[in-house]
## 1
Amino acid sequence: MAHNEAMRWTRGRVRKLQEALDTAYPDARCALAHEDPFQLVVATILSAQCTDARVNLVTPALFLRYPDPVALAGASLPDLEALIHSTGFFRNKARNLVGMARALVERHGGAVPSDPLALSALPGVGQKTANVVLANAFGVPALAVDTHIFRVARRLGLSEARTPEKVEADLCAVIPREDWIPLHHQLIFHGRQVCAAQRPRCADCPLLRLCPTGKGECADPHSGETLPALLRSPKTRAGRGAPAGRS
Ligand code: SF4
C-alpha cells in the first residue's frame, strides 16, 4: 500500500503529530552553537556531511581566529583548512567560507542578509542553509529539510517526494506556517533519537500510531523493506524471540 493510501494528513492528524512532538521534544532547538547570524552561517556551512557535535568542537577556535566577515574574508586557505579539517570536505568548505565572507563584505556591508534570495546567493549557502539561518537567526518561518527530516517525513507519509526541495514544499503545504520552525527542530531530534536510518525504534516511538511505515502498512521508503520485519526495539524484539542477528 502506498503512503498516500495508508495515511491522509488531515488537519486533525497534523495537530496530533504536533502534540506528540511537543510532548516528546519540548526543548528541541538548533544544535549548532552560535551567537549571531554570521556564526550560524559559518556553522551551517561546516555542518554539511558532518555532525553538529563535531562542528561545535571546531567553531570556538574558528570564531576566535575569525570573529567577523572581514576577518574571514582575509583568511589564508591553508590556515582555515587546518582549523576545519575534522569536519570533512575541508578544502571546499574553506573556499566557500572565504567566498561567503567576501560576499558579505562586498555586497552586504559585512552583515548577513535576512532576505532568502540574497542569502541563498552567497557562496556555499543553498536553500537548506538559507532556511536554517532565516529560521534560527531571524525568526523567519522556514522549514529546512535535512537528511533526518527527509527520512522521517517520508516514513510518516507526510511526503512521497524524492528530493529535499519537494519534501519541503509538501511539509509547508500541510504544516501551519507558524509551526515550521519548532517542527523543523523536533523532526531532526526525532530522526536522531528514535527514527534512525538503519534501526528505527518504532516500538518506542511516540509517533507510531500516526506512522504507516512503523505500523507496517507500507514499505519503508528509506530501506524499501517493511519495518515490522526489521529490528524495532531491542527490548521488544527480545521479548518476541527475535533472532539475535537482527538485534
Ligand atoms: S514509527 Fe518508526 S518509522 Fe515511524 S516515525 Fe516512528 S520510528 Fe520512524
## 2
Amino acid sequence: MEYVLTATKTEARAGSYYDKIWRLYDLTFKLNGYGRSLDQYFASHPPPVSRGSSILDAGCGTGLLTLALLRAVNFPVSITSLDLSASSVTATRKAVAQSEGRRSDVNFMQGNVLSLPFADNSFDFVVTSGALEYMPLEDGLNELARVITPRGHLLHLPVRPSLTSTMLEIGFRFKHHSPRDVMQKTAHHFKVVDHFKFPPLQAIGWSKTALLAQKI
Ligand SMILES: C[S@@+](CC[C@H](N)C(=O)[O-])C[C@H]1O[C@@H](n2cnc3c(N)ncnc32)[C@H](O)[C@@H]1O
C-alpha cells in the first residue's frame, strides 16, 4: 500500500484521505485509550501556557488532542484546531460542542499544515500528533516553527518505529520519520526540553513518544 502525501506547500487535494477514514481513526483511537493517556501525560507535564495563550492543534483530526488540552488547562486560552480534512474539522467541532470544557476557547479551521494561514510568531504553543507523518518532516517542522513565537513551545507526538506502528502505517497509510531525523530536524529550530516515553502498558506507548521543544 502506498504512503499518502496529503498535501504539498502549494497544492492540497480538494479532500484529504481522512475525509474517507476519519470515523475508523476516531473509533480506533477512542478504543485504545489515547485520550486517557493524553490526560495522564498532561497531568505530569502541564501544557506550557498561561491565561490568554494562543494554541494551535495542527492536524487536529477528530479533536482528541484538542479535547485533552481543554481538560488540562483550567483557565481561558485560545485554541485553533486545524485539519486538511473538512470532515475531521466538523467532527472536532461536534466533539468540542458536546464536551464539558470551555467550548468558546476553540476555533476550527480547514487548512494545510504545510502552508498555514497565519502570520509568523502567531502561537505560544503548537501541538501536533500523527500529522507530520503525512508530509516531508522538514517542511512540516519549518512551517510549525514559523508560526510559533520566539521561546514558544512545540509538543510533537512523533510515531516511533515498532510493530504496532507498522500496522497503523498500513491501516492509515502514513510513514513514520526516523527518530534520528526527528531529533536532528527539530534541533534546527528548537531546543528539546523533554522527551517522554509513555508507559509500556498504555497503547499509545507502543507507537508514539512525546517531544516537548522550545523555539530558539
Ligand atoms: C493520524 S490523524 C491524527 C489526528 C489528531 N492529531 C490526533 O492526535 O488524534 C492525522 C491527521 O492529520 C491530518 N493531516 C494530514 N496531512 C495534513 C496537512 N497537510 N495539513 C493538515 N492536516 C493534515 C489528517 O487529515 C488527519 O486528520
